[in-house]
Design goal:
532 residues; alpha+beta; 4-stranded antiparallel β-sheet
Length: 532
């Protein structure tokens, strides 16, 4: 048995209609249906197929297309497959939305076969419109002929014989006057003849322009904005129509398709259809209260991916989703990532909570997670080569149990404010560790029987202090990637990270807790380690 496109088995073939070949076929899965095959070898066939294809895409965008409809626009394989559907007789008011969608493409109710699923009308089949090619007609020369001028010469002028002048009398002198000059008289019909000739020429040009309009080669308008497309074809005299399409991977208000295709020769008055991108974004599905696996499947079904998981102490069962970032119902382009806040299953004491891990989040996301954990955020801007607004550290670290409403310091990356020193003959200053404080002498008691003074209790926990961190890139290194970190008794803080060029130096005052160590890495090699 014959196959179409190596997968459709031909069951029967209907009479061809010009470039359209209707078949009754069966898919490898056993689904029977109607297949319309287009022989696209002429501009007329190409225009008919693209109008038919755009009408089907418009039905699909509005939700009026049943599953299983297949459209192929590959070179040499232009066809549309409609799976067999049960017909349904619907009232005119139920068909009105379908007809409004198809009206710009010239399709009517007689071209439809409608089915109904769940109370919603669906197009079971749309019959293509095939216009017959215009028959060749011989043109008639409509240019008016000029009137025939008389060919015989004009009649010769007849001169009357002059009377002889009488001889002059004796003593009379005759004056010699100049003879009168006779001017030539133009025929009275000559101006009318000129006007008739000019009018005939104008009429001939108008008739020639009407019967032989100019042709233009249609440019490629895909990727342009509607304004740019109109400017490109303004002089062509085309009827430009815009329809909406949706492709979230491309910018908004960009032309996705055009009919006729680029390179087609068109004449004034022809219809040009442009599909303008109007992306339709989805929204984050409801995931709160679901298990982690159910929430993952819901995100994938909605076209999103799981960007990460943040676990928070809660009385809910372990692996129960508490919320999401972005929040549920917020518009989001398909393919974007969604972070889930998941219960760890360990309920802390009534007035205590666990500090979540905030590293790698944005400032807004970190604030939201701390709010869910019933903690307060204090943002500290830190010079770093990391992207602006990215959390690079926190105090205290993740997993620490704190009373609720405790303030957590969030270290957020900011562009480094490095000073560029002027050329100096002096060597760059080196970092020196601070001198330890001298012990305070304890006075001896004057009374030997008196009790020695009780020393004041030492403060508990690491004490905060401010230190100045500075570093200058050596002159023998023209450019490098520098990483400056400070490790104290609480965390490791990256105070700078990024590429630099000569001359460059860095200086900043930071807060450390307890003892601290400064480390500088240049081009992946540690060049400095000193206590602060």
């Amino acid at each position: 048995m014959s196959l179409l496109d190596d997968k459709f088995t031909i069951l029967s073939e209907e009479p061809a209609q010009g470039f359209l070949r209707p078949y009754w076929v069966q898919t490898p899965e056993g689904i029977k249906g109607q297949l319309y095959w287009f022989e696209v070898h002429t501009p007329e066939a190409r225009t008919a197929f693209h109008r038919y294809k755009n009408a089907i895409r418009r039905l699909e965008a509005q939700g009026f297309l049943p599953p299983g409809v297949l459209v192929s626009a590959n070179p040499g394989r232009y066809y549309v497959f409609w799976p067999e559907q049960a017909k349904a007789a619907l009232k005119a008011r139920r068909l009105k939305p379908l007809l409004e969608v198809l009206e710009p493409f010239g399709y009517q109710e007689s071209d439809l076969e409608v089915s109904e699923v769940g109370g919603r009308p669906l197009v079971g089949k749309l019959r293509p419109q095939v216009s017959s090619s215009p028959k060749g007609s011989s043109r008639t020369d409509l240019s008016p002929s000029l009137p025939t001028l008389p060919t015989e010469p004009p009649p010769a002028k007849v001169e009357m014989p002059r009377k002889p002048s009488p001889p002059p009398r004796i003593g009379e002198t005759r004056s010699r006057l100049p003879k009168p000059v006779h001017r030539a008289n133009w025929p009275g019909w000559l101006p009318g003849l000129l006007m008739l000739a000019l009018g005939s020429m104008a009429l001939w040009q108008a008739a020639n322009s009407y019967l032989n309009p100019p042709e233009y080669v249609l440019p490629d308008l895909v990727g342009k904005t509607p304004r740019q497309a109109l400017e490109a074809v303004r002089a062509y005299g085309l009827k430009v129509e815009f329809v909406e399409g949706s492709d979230v991977s491309l910018p908004k208000d960009q032309i996705l398709e055009q009919t006729p295709d680029p390179g087609t020769r068109v004449k004034p008055g022809r219809r040009l259809e442009l599909v303008v991108n109007k992306p339709r974004f989805g929204s984050v599905p409801t995931v709160s209260g679901r298990s982690l696996e159910d929430a993952r499947q819901a995100l994938e079904a909605a076209g999103y991916r799981l960007a990460g998981i943040t676990r928070i102490a809660s009385g809910d069962t372990a692996d129960t989703v508490l919320s999401s970032i972005p929040r549920e119902g917020q518009p989001l382009p398909p393919g974007q990532g969604v972070r889930l806040l998941v219960s760890s299953g360990a309920r802390p004491p009534a007035r205590e909570t666990l500090v979540p891990d905030l590293t790698g989040l944005t400032e807004e996301e970190a604030r939201y997670i701390l709010t869910v954990a019933e903690l307060q955020a204090q943002t500290v801007q830190v010079a770093s080569g990391a992207p602006d607004g990215l959390v690079i550290g926190q105090e205290p670290g993740p997993g620490v149990v704190l009373p609720r409403e405790t303030v957590v310091r969030v270290l957020v990356a900011a562009q480094p404010m490095a000073s560029v020193p002027k050329a100096s003959p002096f060597a760059p200053p080196r970092l020196e560790p601070p001198r330890p404080p001298e012990p305070t002498p304890i006075p001896e008691p004057t009374n030997p029987n008196a009790n020695p003074p009780t020393p004041s209790p030492a403060p508990t926990g690491p004490q905060e202090r401010r230190v100045n961190v500075s570093y200058t890139l050596p002159e023998n290194i023209p450019s490098a990637v520098v990483v400056i970190t400070v490790q104290d008794e609480v965390l490791v803080n990256t105070v700078f990270e990024g590429p630099v060029q000569q001359p460059w130096s860095f200086s900043q005052e930071i807060v450390v807790r307890g003892s601290a160590v400064l480390r500088v890495v240049v081009n992946g090699e540690q060049v400095l380690e000193t206590p602060l």
